[in-house]
């Protein structure tokens, strides 16, 4: 039995090695042809054999950043809520709802995103944000006036970076919440009671005792969410708008690395294009794995540091 | 003059009644010890005094706890305010690990309002001196509170409690997690503190109670068995059960 | 110095206005978070049900996708249902035994460096985006055979499902008390029999839960299938040829202008979501029953 199971273990390692090898070998021609210029050029032109990954890297990073900014505060709030005794009755159902959210397939998110969320945002939220922030010197450029009329969406061309970011934030909320919740649960009762005994309100207790203790672990949760957001393909490609140029604002259409691979690989006509898409895969994998490792480090480092701080002496 | 008076206090954890009709008074500027075997309810009684008991899910208390003539359990009394005026030190030292020694000491003050920096420093020094910790940490005020030794951490927690100048200091087995040398220091500290504060201390260590306290309350199964001066409780108790306990026949 | 009697403050709230306000604002924020977590779910469920239900009829489950001239409500996703079944079916056959075997290795036999490497690999593959799995299989199998195929899609999904099964199974195996193993070993049973006859049966329904969750994830997959099976407007029962799948159909029809196709997309989304949710709930029920039995 040990032989069989060990073999499957080694096979698993072989699969990972194969994945990395295929990507590396496939992307090699592109990297050797363009070098680091692949990452810095925004010129993606398959017929003319020009490939620059910057628009896709930019799209990936921008949408994931928006997703993080929107989902982390909510996830932390939920993590606190799920650990506080006041809301004992709603904890169970709330946790269940979050689990259900996690189980929804990404293509369904894309469908609802395309037909419901994108039009609603383009009609209501985006103009609203423009009126609130549009006048601020640098930041305002992110929220420009929308030149198209808000009469209806154009199928296949709907969506932009911002909508993709919002849809992504909903999709990563469950995982960030789950880890944050575990982290907050490890805060020792002693610390909370120390704050309470000093006459702290609930908010003050959380600010003084709970959040500082959980800070690193929550960062770890955020990194993991970021990693998931980077790799999300289908929902993003349905609401990000399309187009291989670098968008100038949050309301511009664009592509992410994953959506570019998904939309172009099947139709790739020449070898260099295929290779470039595989090279994009290399970048994506490097980012995902790097973030997963960072996340683990932060979650366990945070826990260890706090334990040793408390047990000193 | 009494600082704190408990009248007919009952307490429950869910359906289980853990305190039954407790009556006790803690004299001003004196140390009152609460002793009894494990599970007799002494910590629960202490935690009822500053309304920490109800922080546990399903826990509640009924009765009166009079503090300066006002009932802590009055309908319009705010638990947060009660805890501001009554200080508590816990069994295991619990300084805030991410805060410096200085920030720990003034944590309670910062909650109370905005104080100018100079005043914060003064009060921190005063509290740390009162806790017998100043000499050891005066050059290390910015270091994290978690770096101190166990005994120092506990004295830091005492300083933290004293900084807000409470009238009453509740101590729940403050030395039981410490080594003998630190324990002795804490006991010496209590003897000094009683000049200015009312101290109520729960302890499972009878000798400690005999050493530091002026009055002693002996509890069994959630009820008061005997409450008298320490001398009387330990040399000439009225109740047979008290005598059995203090002479070590059980518990 | 303790405060003199005359200075004692009332016990009714002495909290300053700003402290009280901050606490109230914070509580409001927490409730807002709860609402924000629920609203998307409710919105998605509502729209999928409302727009999907009108597409459901017998034809939906038994007929092929409609052509441009077909009357409404005559087309369906029969080929996609078959295709999904084929792809996920083969993926389960491949990944579940491998996943369980790997978990057994990690839990019962693995010590030292090899086990660390295997576990690290499992965690890494778990974090792999599904598009990468599809990309790798597309760059190899699909390219070498010059054909999109159902089995290529199954391979890609197996890569994604394998670590899920392993992680879930390993957790359940670890929960089996060590005393059980030691008791059996002390009776003279060889290690492999201890695993097969004692450990696995005890873990039993826990492993089933893990498999159900992995299948649930596989059913929701699109990106990996897109690059490997391509999709098919007709019925296909051969593993070697392009195959339709429910998720792929939703993906492509959502971006078509014809309302008929869009409606079918909603109907397919409703079917898919219901299946995934039923599986998740069933997994949870099995797990709760199991915990009751063990308690």
Compact overview of the structure:
The complex is a heterotrimer of chains A (313), B (251) and C (295). With 313 residues, chain A is an all-alpha fold.
Walk me through this protein's architecture.
The complex is a heterotrimer of chains A (313), B (251) and C (295). Chain A is mostly helical and 313 residues long. Helix content of chain A is 73%, strand content 0%. Chain A contains eleven helices and no strands. In chain A, α3 (54-83) packs across α10 and α6 crosses α8. The longest helix of chain A is centred in the C-terminal third of the chain and has 41 residues, at 271-311. Chain A is globular. The termini of chain A are far apart. Residues 149-157 of chain A have low confidence and may be disordered. Helices cover 37% and strands 27% of the residues of chain B. Chain B has helices spanning 42-49, 79-85, 101-105, 107-112, 117-130, 134-137, 150-163, 180-193, 206-212, 230-235, 240-246, and strands at residues 2-13, 16-27, 31-35, 59-67, 70-71, 86-89, 168-172, 198-202, 215-220, 223-229. Chain B starts with a strand and ends in a 5-residue tail after the last helix. Chain C has 295 residues and is an all-alpha fold. Chain C is 74% helix and 0% strand. Chain C is built from eleven helices and no strands. The longest helix of chain C is centred in the N-terminal third of the chain and has 37 residues, at 17-53. Mean pLDDT of chain C is 89; it is low at 1-7. Chains in contact: A-B, A-C, B-C. Chain B binds chain C through residues 29, 67-68, 70-72, 74, 76-78, 80-82, 84-85, 111, 113, 165-167, 196-198, and chain C through 1-3, 5, 8-16, 19.
